[in-house]
């Protein structure tokens, strides 16, 4: 999300060139631990960095990482700023109308609420969510009051400073922010259809390469091991 950051590898199909002769760019947010974040060296890190590198190796692709802000991550994919999105993006019918997806590399991660106390009335309160996420859409569908922010950090800050009564986000992300001040509510939501790589609809060959690599990681257990290491979702 923020500035462009080059990392390790992935290659794309352009014109008549073979994948092995070009570089495919992976777009991620870099601000959603443990899925993806920037480490102290300013490099993309986290579950999806490790996953993306392994997928590229198995697909025999040359890799490069790019960070992009979440609210423009799909438009900048379709305009060609990078070739695939790997950013904790849930597969939804609405997104699938604009871009294509691989098979999911994680099952749906439960969405949870974090607040300053456990007695929050969600129906009458103000709920923070990151803009253009499945959580923001869910809150609106309930008829509750939602306040949207550009980054995950801003949603949590809104609860801390009293601007919002709770935040709804992936439980794996909220696990990283709970502390002496913030508590996780018992209620959770099952929304979204698993997380996959997003690609331009025209890039069917690249999608097939990633699909095969994901399936091979599922078949040999590598993906479950990686999911457990980073605690991003339940295992397959």
Task: List descriptors.
236 residues; 8 helices; D-Maltodextrin-Binding Protein, domain 2; globular; 5-stranded mixed β-sheet; 13 strands
Describe this structure in words.
This protein is 30% helix and 22% strand. By secondary structure, the protein is α/β, with parallel strands linked by helices. The chain has two domains: 19-107 and 193-230, 3-Layer(aba) Sandwich (D-Maltodextrin-Binding Protein, domain 2), CATH 3.40.190; 111-189, Periplasmic binding protein-like II (D-Maltodextrin-Binding Protein, domain 2, 3-Layer(aba) Sandwich), CATH 3.40.190. Helix 4 (134-142) links the parallel strand 9 and strand 10. The radius of gyration is 18 Å and the shape is globular. The relative contact order is 0.19.
Compose a concise summary of this entry:
By secondary structure, this protein is of the alpha/beta class. It has 8 helices and 13 strands.
Helix and strand arrangement:
Layout: E1 23-28, E2 31-32, E3 36-38, E4 44-45, H1 47-59, E5 62-67, H2 73-78, E6 84-85, H3 93-96, E7 100-101, E8 111-115, E9 126-130, H4 134-142, E10 145-149, H5 152-160, E11 166-170, H6 171-174, E12 183-189, E13 198-199, H7 204-220, H8 222-230
Parallel strand pairs: 1-5, 1-6, 9-10, 9-11
Antiparallel strand pairs: 2-3, 3-4, 6-13, 7-13, 8-11, 8-12
Helix pairs in contact: 1-7
Order of helices and strands: EEEEHEHEHEEEHEHEHEEHH
Classified by CATH, the class of the largest domain is: Alpha Beta
Which stretches are poorly predicted, pLDDT < 50 over at least 5 residues? Answer: 1-20
CATH superfamily of the largest domain: Periplasmic binding protein-like II
Widest sheet, order of strands: 5-1-6-13-7
Q: How many helical elements?
A: 8
């Amino acid at each position: 999300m923020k500035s462009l950051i080059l990392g390790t590898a992935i290659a794309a199909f352009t014109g008549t060139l073979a994948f092995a002769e070009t570089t495919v760019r992976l777009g991620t947010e870099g601000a959603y631990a443990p899925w993806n974040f920037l480490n102290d060296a300013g490099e993309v890190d986290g579950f999806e960095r490790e996953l993306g590198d392994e997928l590229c190796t198995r697909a025999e692709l040359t890799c490069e990482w790019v960070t992009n802000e979440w609210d423009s991550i799909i438009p900048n994919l379709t305009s060609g700023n990078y070739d695939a999105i790997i950013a904790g993006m849930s597969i939804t019918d609405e997104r699938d109308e604009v871009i294509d997806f691989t098979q999911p590399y994680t099952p749906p991660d439960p969405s949870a609420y974090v607040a300053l106390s456990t007695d929050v009335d969600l129906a009458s309160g103000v709920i923070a969510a990151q803009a253009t996420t499945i959580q923001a859409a869910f809150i609106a569908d309930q008829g509750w009051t939602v306040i949207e922010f550009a980054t995950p950090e801003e949603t949590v800050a809104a609860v801390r400073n009293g601007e919002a009564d709770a935040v709804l986000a992936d439980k794996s992300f909220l696990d990283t922010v709970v502390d002496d001040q913030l508590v996780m509510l018992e209620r959770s939501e099952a929304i979204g259809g698993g997380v996959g790589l997003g690609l331009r609809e025209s890039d069917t060959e690249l999608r097939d390469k990633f699909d095969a690599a994901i399936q091979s990681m599922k078949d040999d257990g590598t993906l479950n091991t990686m999911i457990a290491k980073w605690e991003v979702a339940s295992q397959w």
